[in-house]
Amino acid sequence: MTPPHPILNRRLPTRRTLLAAAALAPWAAPAATRAQGSAPLPDAPPLPERSAGSEDAPMVVTEYFSLTCNHCAHFHLETWPRVREAFVDTGRIRLVWRDFPLDELALEAAQIARALPGDAYEPFIRALFASQERWAFDRDADKFDELAKLAALAGMQRWQVEAALENDDLRRAVLRSRLEGERERGVTRTPTFFFDDRRAAGALSFERFASFVSG
């Protein structure tokens, strides 16, 4: 049996655990404190854009989401396919995904997703959302093993999954995405959408999403 990966199946505090706790600490601070920008943004290279749709689309929709958020899963599984067909494939919008991990597990799942080539990103996050109950909420599941199995279907070998989790630049970049969302755009929950500059939060129905595109 493969031993649990030390990152996703921690038992004793390690240097990495303590670093992660320090990085995640600002998320637990009161909203007023976060708004003041008291915690510095992690120094990290920018993440490559992950998006769907034409760069010439007249509207850019930005979604802040967490891979352990069940509302995000509902949107991606129930609403997103219709949105893609009606608005992305027809050239009306380009949807840009921004990481807003709500917890440590979401952060590490995002690291794995971001390590994939751009054309594999959307299918992988869809697979994560479709199996979220198993890898995110099953207390008996080996988190690393479940994520590694899903990543294998996207073409990643186990060593590549481990490398993504050990990549501190990637980790800081995902953290920075969340903190920038909080400070620069006032995001406090997932999913949150920006239709150009108009904000909408929650697992939008297709009809509500369409009203923002048309309005």
From TrEMBL:
Highest taxon of the lineage: Bacteria
InterPro entries, per database record: Thioredoxin-like_fold, Thioredoxin-like_sf, Thioredoxin_domain
Disordered, as annotated region: 35-54
Keywords in alphabetical order: Signal
UniProt keyword Signal present: yes
Signal peptide (residue range): 1-31
Residue ranges of every copy of the Thioredoxin domain listed in the record: 18-158
Gene3D superfamilies the record matches: Glutaredoxin
PROSITE patterns hit by this protein: THIOREDOXIN_2 (PS51352)
PANTHER family for the chain: GLUTATHIONE S-TRANSFERASE KAPPA, THIOREDOXIN-LIKE REDUCTASE RV2466C
Protein name as catalogued: DsbA family protein
Organism: Teichococcus vastitatis
